[in-house]
Every structure is written in C-alpha cells, then in structure tokens.
C-alpha cells in the first residue's frame, strides 16, 4: 500500500490520486491531482514522498469575460519558463492546468497560477512543519548537563528519523559529549559537561523522504558568577559613592582647619597682653620727652 502523498487543508480543493508509477520500491512516485477554485487564493499542501503533481486552477473571470486570456505559472515568485498558454473560456470559466515533478527538496516551494495578470492562486508545497518552536533560549551553567527537545505534532505523519546539527558546524552532532534520543514524533539532545563554547543554536531535523524539516533551539551557557554580576555592580557603585562622600568630607575638614589657622595668624598682632600695652605706652612717653 502506498501512503498518501499529500495532505490538503482546504474544503475548496479536490485531491484525487489518479495512478501510481513506482520508481523504486522504497519511495514510489505518485501522480496526484490538486484542483482549486479562485476565492481561496492559497492552499497549504504537505508532501511526504516524491510525487508527480498536477495543479489545476479555475477562475470565473471578470465582467468582460473575453473568449481567451493568457495564463502562466510561477514558482517562488518567478515565472516558470515556457509555462505561458492561451486559456479558452469554457462554461463561463477559465481552467489552467500544469504537471510538476516534485521529487526532491529543491522542487518544494510556492507555485502560483496566474490568469492574465488579474487573478492568482497559490499552492504552498512543503514537508510537514514543526509547530512547537521555543522562543526563549535554554539557560544552563558551565559543567552542568542540559536536555533540548524538538517535537512534531502527533496528528502529522511520523518522521522516518531525526537529526541534530550545531550552528557553525559542518556535520552532525558527534556523540562525545552529546546523546540523541529519538522517540517517534519527538527527539531529545542531551549535552554533558557544558562549556561556554556550547552556547549557540542547535538545529533539529525531522527527516521525511521528500525533505528534512528544520527547527532550532538556542542554548546559553553561563558561569556561576554570571547571576552575581548585577549584585557586584551594585556593591561597586555603593563603595564608589561612600568613598566619594568620605573624600568630600575630608576635603571640607581640611578647608575648615586651614581657615581657622589663617584667622588666628592674622588676628594675633592686634591682640596684646596688658604688659605689652604698658611697654608700648612707656616707649611712647619717652619719645615725647625727647622731643
């Protein structure tokens, strides 16, 4: 028995398997037909296996309804070469059909049928996507261990296997300090004896015959001193503030002491003892007698 080659997510689409032509016993290529009427505009299609896919679009036309219009196809926004055809008006509507060989990941993407530049319908072809994506990084400490998880929804087809990759790394995760545990729709990556060099992005891949669906988990490895940094910064600020206050008070004390000494020195010549005053009076009297 062959597995369903596609999953149609719209009631406006007719999915019909016409016949099968196996290229190999393991990965048969099915011929599948998808039809969509203008009004839905976009259809998400999940593919598991290589497939010969016939895409068909129907458009009711505008008020003028010319006897024929030009229709063509695009992939990922670029017009497909030699896809322009003349589409005749039949039963008050225009029908555009094209067959595509979707045999590898390069063939996946967004396919669009265009009617005379006025109407467009999109078919988004992709392998089942991982919906459970972690937004925030996992934080752990140097020397500890950590478990990272990727999960495919269980209402989607089960992946053949799972792979893990590291950012800025050329190959798969090697099992020296890493351990991979796959369990159907879920995979876990265990990392032991963490170092700060382990910080970064780890990519998990759900492997299907047609493509590998990727997701990522971010890991941040910190030292035990990292959480203390804000506290240490506050303590340093307090020490600097107290030191500034003490220096200011000390400088003010020196200024007060200097001012007091200056006052005593300049006031001293004008302050005399009674003996000094009598001596000055006698000296003045003697100078008067001599005169």
Q: If you had to describe this structure to a student in words, what would you say it looks like?
A:
- The N terminus and C terminus are likely disordered.
- The protein has 291 residues and is of the alpha+beta class.
- It has three domains: 121 residues, Immunoglobulin-like (Sandwich), CATH 2.60.40.10; 87 residues, Sandwich (Immunoglobulin-like), CATH 2.60.40; 51 residues.
- The N and C termini lie far apart (149 Å).
- 19% of the residues lie in helices and 43% in strands.
- The relative contact order is 0.11.
Give keywords:
about 290 residues, alpha+beta, Immunoglobulin-like, eleven-stranded mixed beta sheet, four-stranded mixed beta sheet, 2 helices, 18 strands, disordered N terminus, disordered C terminus
As an assembly, this protein is single chain
DSSP strand content: 35-45%
At CATH level 3, the topology of the largest domain is Immunoglobulin-like
Count of runs of 4 or more consecutive helical residues: 2
Total tally of structural domains: 3
How is the biggest beta sheet arranged? 11 strands, mixed
Rg from alpha-carbon coordinates: 43 Å
CATH architecture of the largest domain: Sandwich
Would you state the CATH class of the largest domain?
Answer: Mainly Beta
Helix content: 10-25%
Terminal residue distance = 149 Å
Structural class: alpha+beta
Poorly predicted sequence stretches spanning 5 or more consecutive residues = 1-29, 287-291
